Automatic annotation (TrEMBL):
One of its GO terms (molecular function) is phosphatase activity. Pfam families: Hydrolase. Signal peptide: none annotated. This is HAD-like protein. InterPro entries: HAD-like_sf (IPR036412), HAD_sf (IPR023214), PGP-like_dom2 (IPR023198). It comes from the Eukaryota.
Amino acid sequence: MTRDAVHKSKAKIEYVLFDMDGLLIDSERVYTQVTNEILAEYGKEMTWDIKAGLMGKPERDAATHLLSFFPDLPPEFTIDVYLQRRRVGQDALWPHVQPLPGVLKLVKHLHKHGVPIAVATGSQRRNYELKSSHLMDALFGYFGGRVVCADDGLIKSGRGKPHPDIFLVTATTCLKRGVGDGEIGESIVTEEQLAERAKGLVFEDAIPGVQAGKRAGMNVVWVPDPNLLTIGDNDANSILEKPDRTLTSLEDFKPEEWGLPPYDTE
């Protein structure tokens, strides 16, 4: 079921952008597991109120934010040491991550009906390859290589979410949409670009991703981990940019509410 009190028709969508981690695949569990295995050696733990502030951030920014909660860690336990140890642990687990509920049905459905789709992820390209290679036939192959990663060199500013850059770049380079540059409200964004952005739908699991999608001027469906909804200041209620729809699972998404072809009757 949805968490919206009122169900109403949404914008007519012509293209769809997906986040990856925690939205398409169950990779957030790996981030948590590996980080807490490392921190446990020092008697520390990454709780969900800490983790909420990391989701959607570029790798180094997220690591800096995480370690700021543990100022008494040994000085030799630097950000670089943490990232290297985390990489080793994660690399062993990425080839085993699986799609989240509702993902395969939705992606295959959009592909079948010719709806342009792409992945816009803050993951590094090497990590994307590790996470996706075993799922090419089942999932990622349907995107036809239309994937933008944080380190592809396409985002000139190098900024991560909550800035909208990755969604704008993905729409432009992968789907050839004339969305332009700049956040909503900036003078460089034309009326034509605003109209083109309004035809896009973003799926996100992280609050910075919701912010990025809305700052891009696109429609946003938020599919959060249930733990996020129990954290007061980190709830979407605490940010200015609100998702257009919040779902407990992609299984609850109804394409026809967005002007997309409905699922086939089973």
